[in-house]
Design goal:
This protein is an alpha+beta fold. It is built from three helices and nine strands. The strands form two sheets. A five-stranded antiparallel β-sheet has the order 3-4-2-6-7. Strands 5-1-9-8 form a four-stranded mixed β-sheet. A hairpin with a 3-residue loop joins strand 6 and strand 7. The longest helix is centred in the N-terminal third of the chain and has 22 residues. It is elongated, with a radius of gyration of 20 Å.
Length: about 140
């Protein structure tokens, strides 16, 4: 009887520890939002230095209609309708890690080209808590 109670207490402590550790994990997202009244195209080029993780990165981008998926040149092109979102990144931590992205080009009436890590990081503004957004108006 005492042994069963001890085992139950151990499982209870493990469950509480697991729940507590997961509750405080922080995640962030980086999203492009098309808040214009037009369709736009987004072309994403990835750094070849981070090749292994980058191929998965292209496959795991959420939203938009994929038009081109080029694994040789490590790039993809997406079409976004008005009010549609393209989630580029979802990771643990408080700030986004966008170093896998070599270049992001957004084709609209005006073309926006973010061709280095600094420009890409500055383009995404923190909206609330850990959500970073590049809004196209």
């Amino acid at each position: 009887m005492r042994k069963e109670k001890t085992i139950k207490n151990i499982f209870l402590i493990l469950f509480i520890s697991l729940f507590y550790s997961c509750m405080f994990d922080e995640y962030n997202t980086s999203t492009i939002i098309n808040n214009s009244n037009r369709n736009i195209e987004v072309k994403i080029e990835l750094n070849k230095e981070t090749y292994k993780s980058s191929l998965d990165r292209l496959k795991n981008i959420n939203g938009g209609l994929i038009k081109v998926y080029d694994t040789i040149n490590m790039e993809a092109k997406y079409s976004l309708s008005p009010k549609e979102e393209l989630q580029l990144d979802f990771k643990r931590g408080r700030i986004p890690n966008l170093k896998d992205f070599k270049k992001i080009s957004i084709y609209d009436n005006d073309t926006i080209v973010l061709d280095n890590e600094s420009k890409i990081n500055l383009a995404f503004e923190k909206q609330w808590r850990n959500k970073f957004v590049l809004e196209i108006k």
